[in-house]
UniProtKB/TrEMBL annotation:
The active site is at residue 397. It comes from the Bacteria. Binds 2 manganese ions per subunit. SUPFAM superfamilies: Hypothetical protein PH1602. This is tRNA-splicing ligase RtcB. It comes from Kitasatospora atroaurantiaca.
Amino acid sequence: MDVRLIEESPWRFRIERTGDMRVPGTVFAPRELLPLDAGDKSLEQVANVATLPGIVRASFAMPDIHWGYGFPIGGVAATDVDAGGVVSPGGVGFDISCGVRLLGATVDRRSLMPHLPELMDRLDHLIPRGLGRGALWRPGGRRELHEVLRHGARYAVERGHGVPRDLQRCEDYGAVDDADPTQVSERALERGGAQVGSVGSANHFLEIQVVEKVYDESCAQAFGLHAGQVCVMIHCGSRGLGHQICSDHVRAMGEVMHRYGISLPDKQLACVPVHSHEGRAYLGAMAAAANYARANRQLLGDEARRVFGELAGAGLDLVYDVSHNVAKLETREVDGARKVLCVHRKGATRALPPGHPDLPPDLVAVGQPVFVPGTMGTASYVLTGVTGNEAFDSSCHGAGRVWSRHRALREVTTGGLRTELALAGVAVRPTSWRSVKEEAPEAYKDVDAVVTATAHNNLGRLVVRLVPIGVLKG
Ligand code: 5GP
Ligand code: MN
Ligand code: MN
């Protein structure tokens, strides 16, 4: 696909409609955040997504855009489901419902510091992470695993892993309704059954952070955040279960796509109409994985809460839990008409504006918290949703990779990274330095520039900046 990039303002670019593109591409990034390295296909992916049947408005890319499977990471695309709109597993990603949960501690940095080493050691011991290394919880057979797939974080809380107030601060109150575990393969159940309550590897983490700066006092207060406060940020998803579901359904769709008259520039964009047997099957399985991911984060958050209580006498209150890899059916106005859209957000965070009916009552006035992890050695941010967001109320989800994992392994040394993190005052407990090197700060875009571009493009507003003091990596 030919990419004709036009600078619309210093903050955004348009990809002109050419060839089979049904809508233009909109890239919410200044030039310095564009993925322009030779051989990088991310912008071509934005253009490819614009060819999907039923796509409306534009194929969007957030400022943290980088290369992904089919869709770019940082991609947002909505299709009109009653006009043949499709659903594409590549528009959700392999780690279905990967997302971020932030908890605010009832303790400030100064009071926590004496406990930090012991806290890190205990978490290091208790929090399962890395490739296939145990889990906090083992469901009692398939029947109980199905409960997790149907009821997500709600089931975890019901079983005593958390408090009802946690669910008030979860997207969809902890679970989506239309999960269909019968669409989840035996292999996916097998992979996921032993991983409920585990972080996983690589980019996933549990991090202790401190609120370093507050941009919006009243919003921060509504979120339960203040300067100097300790927080816990958890980033993980649906582990082997989601991965297997994505593989299974990409394969199934690839085989039947032609029957629906769909042909696409990239087979990684495999898709079928939302209103089709295969489309419904994928959405049912995807929802099951979404619930699994939410139960996963609920268990991990509750374990961190127990450790904070025991070792630091501190509480942890949930700020919010939100996915950044998921597709949702949302009724929205497009070109003056109400339409049911299948909104794919892949490496993009839903960001509801103030007044939205899906917000919990205590957040209606301020909007939905959006979490933007940066790197283990730099900052992370909390933003809030704003009115008039052009990308169907979506925001960025991270700093975004600039180096491949391979390049990071080549360029980063363990010694150099250890020194860098020690100088930044960050205690690290890795399961493998190899995996930490892949996620070194140098491998990512500048998160400060990413959130600035996000705010300039009216995709969110800055609320607080967080800095890490302790990192548990997979
Ligand atoms: P993804 O969901 O695309 O895998 O990752 C989301 C974002 O997490 C990345 O773009 C990166 O900015 C951020 N990230 C990766 N590792 C870490 C970490 O150890 N700590 C923090 N705070 N952020 C990280
Ligand atoms: Mn993930
Ligand atoms: Mn993620």
